[in-house]
Structures are given as C-alpha cells and as structure tokens.
Design brief:
Keywords: Hydrolase. The chain is α/β, with parallel strands linked by helices. The protein has a single domain, classed as Rossmann fold, CATH 3.40.50.10310. The protein has eight helices and six strands, in the order αβαββαβαβαβααα. The protein has a four-stranded parallel beta sheet, sandwiched between helices. It has a two-stranded parallel ribbon with strand order 3-4. The radius of gyration is 19 Å and the shape is globular. The structure holds zinc ion (ZN). The site of zinc ion has 6 residues, from loops.
Length: 259
C-alpha cells in the first residue's frame, strides 16, 4: 500500500493520485503549546495527525504535513501564552500560512480539502485563511475547490462523554491537557505521557472576561485547567475510534464520496 503521507510520495506518485482519485487532502492544524507537566508540547498537533492518518486510510485520502504552530494560547482555554515552550504565531501569520497552503494544493489540482483543527484559538484565523484562499482562487479561475473544517473534539457523542466523565463533564474550554486529550495520547502515544506528573487540582475557575496584559500569577500555575487524573488508554481508544468514524463519515457525506 502506498503511503497516505504526501511528504513521503514522489511528485509523480502524488500527481497520479490527484488525477486518478481526486482524493481528500487532510491538513492537520495544531499548536506548540504547554499541556501541563504530564503531556507533550505538541499535543494539539499529534492528536489531529493521528486522527488524520486513520481518516486518510479509511477514505483513501492523503494527509499533508501539519501546521504545527497555532495562534496565541489564551488563559481561559490554553493556560496563557506566557508558559515556557508555548510558541505561537501572530494572527496574520496563521491567516497567510493557511491561505498559501490551501492555494498551493488547489494549484496542484486538489479540489477537496479537510482542515483538521485541534487548537481552540486557531478557529477564526483558519476561517480567514480559507476565505482569502477562495477569493484568490476565484480570481484565478478556480471556483470548484471545496474545504471542510473540523474541530475533531466536536465528534464525540453524549454517551461517550458520560463514559469518559462518570462524575460530569467539566466543559470544553477546561478540557486542555485534561482527561480527553490525555486519554487519546495514552492510547496512541503512551511513550509521551507521564501520568505520575498529572497535577491533582480542582478545575480552574476563570471570570467571564479577559484582562490584558495577562497576569501570569493569576489562572493556572500548572498549565492544566481540569485534572487528567481519570485518563486511561481504554477511554482514549473509545474517543479515538469515535473521532475517526465520525469524521470519516462526515467527510464522505460532505464531499459526496461513496461509502
Ligand atoms: Zn491548544
């Protein structure tokens, strides 16, 4: 079987695949951002890459090298941008990067793109990059590119949430280096997780507003917003399978692919 990784194909093999199959090209987008003392800085990049590879194999698509840096971490959703290791882009850099990559895939002949985002703060900058790419491509005579944008964590069912959080779900913004991301890592990359270093802390309560400049003495001091103590590889497997099945089905539906 040939690789699903564009980066591992020759230009001729890639070109043939595009012309023959019009495959969905998956672009994972993450961040380099602290994820507590127990999980890696690239958590937001590794997870959509792992999901993206499995989805590409399921729908006979291709996966592009990820955008491994994201927009600045915010205290209420990522702990804040002041942590060592957190390495972020200005908004216009992420917009231009997204626009450039999308336009290049369109120039190659790709017409179906799936952006697989996993970093809360990226959202509107990716949408702006998509919008600018579509406008530019239209002025170049390309008007049949379709782009699907997914936040993988939205593909979880209520039943799975109840299984993963028997004591109640703390909410999406607090799920940063929490039970869900840590469980998926324990399932896919246990070599990168240190459960003995998971902080034992209550969910961090933030007021319903942001203050700038950010005061590093306020908010989380460990980098986590809710504890990952309940994380297990078994929960990770349930979540991972649900993400892959749900995103694969949605991609087929959105692009009218045969099941
Ligand atoms: Zn993040």
């Amino acid at each position: 079987m040939t690789s699903v990784h564009i980066a591992e194909l020759s230009w001729t093999a890639y070109d043939e695949k595009l012309k023959r199959d019009n495959p969905v090209i998956i672009l994972p987008v993450g961040s380099l951002e602290q994820h507590g003392p127990h999980s890696p800085l690239a958590t937001d990049t590794i997870i959509p890459q792992e999901i993206g590879i499995a989805v590409a194999e399921t729908i006979d698509g291709l996966i592009a090298p990820p955008i491994a840096y994201g927009y600045k971490s915010m205290p209420r959703t990522g702990g804040g941008n002041h942590f060592p290791g957190t390495t972020s882009l200005d908004g216009d850099t992420l917009v231009r990067l997204t626009r450039d990559i999308l336009c290049e895939f369109a120039r190659h002949g790709a017409r179906r793109l799936l952006i697989l985002d996993s970093h809360y703060e990226n959202e509107m900058f990716l949408i702006e990059g998509i919008d600018l790419a579509l406008k530019d491509l239209k002025s170049w005579g390309i008007d049949d590119l379709r782009i699907m944008k997914v936040r993988y964590f939205e593909f979880v069912s209520e039943a799975t949430l109840a299984t993963v959080f028997p004591d109640g779900f703390p909410g999406w913004p607090l799920e940063h280096a929490g039970v869900m991301t840590t469980s998926v890592l324990l399932h896919r990359r246990p070599d990168l997780v240190h459960m003995d270093k998971v902080p034992n802390q209550k969910p961090v309560i933030y007021p319903p507003y942001d203050l700038f400049p950010v005061d590093p003495k306020k908010g989380t001091q460990t980098g986590i917003l809710a504890t990952a103590k309940g994380a297990t590889p078994e929960k990770g497997e349930i979540l991972f399978k649900e993400y892959v099945a749900g995103i694969s089905a949605a991609t087929r539906e959105a692009f009218g692919l045969n099941a």
